[in-house]
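Give me the fold.
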Amino acid sequence: RHVFYLTDAIDTVVAVAVVIAEGALPEALAAAVQFGQRRVRGHLVAQALTLHLQQPQWCTDLSWRIQRIAVLASERRKGHGLALLSAIRQAAEAANVTYLSSSFGLTAELIRFWQQAGFQLSRVGITRDKTSGCHSVMLVRILAEAPALVASMSELFARIRILLRRELKSIKAHDVVALMPCLPKTKGIKSPEVYLPSLAARLNLMHEHRLPLADFALEVQRLMMCVAEHPQLLSDAGASAELALLVAYYWQTKSLEELQIEFKVTGQKQLQSRLAAAVKHLLDWISE
């Protein structure tokens, strides 16, 4: 266990982090973890990723899990947390650590913080924590050359989209959108430039002639994927809100009653109007 801290100009501690070493397990033990035959105390993230991503290197390589990080209340939003994570990363690289990790309850604010520090999503828990009511997430930052680890995360987005229809349906759509900048690159997704000409033509046709949105579900899905692959668009609050509505409707298949609560939708007619407007706005943003 390691404790890192950050001080100000007068040596007052303004930020502190507790870091736990994980992994560095023998190959035979890692294989037993991979197939659910063993559980090893004290290796929370390494063990979970080995089992759920079916890649034992998460357990055989040395990693550091950031168990806790806290900043003095009066010193928050001044970059101290990110500065401390940078110091931890440098120390980890010097110690030949393959990756850093952390696990916590999903909130949009926390996700944005870790994304700014260069961490990527590696797992979303399907059950909610009894205390916080949040789904747990695991994020990693790979520090060394580890193509097998990167490859094991490459289909994570596709897996999450499937789970959003049932196991992860209760997650707020805005939190799902907050996760997107942290997602690893997805296999088999063509760049927006490939789809944009046909997307624009088809979706503009829909708007001009007020055609049913249901007939353009494929185009809308492709537009959403294009936006998800370009997280810089999600820094715009308007684009983020528009995408959240589409995520709730198309990926989470939330009922009208659920959408009324989450998005203040008054009825089916207004819902269809807002969905069409969201598609038009996102198309305009990504085309600029």
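The CA atoms of residues 55 and 152 lie 7 Å apart.
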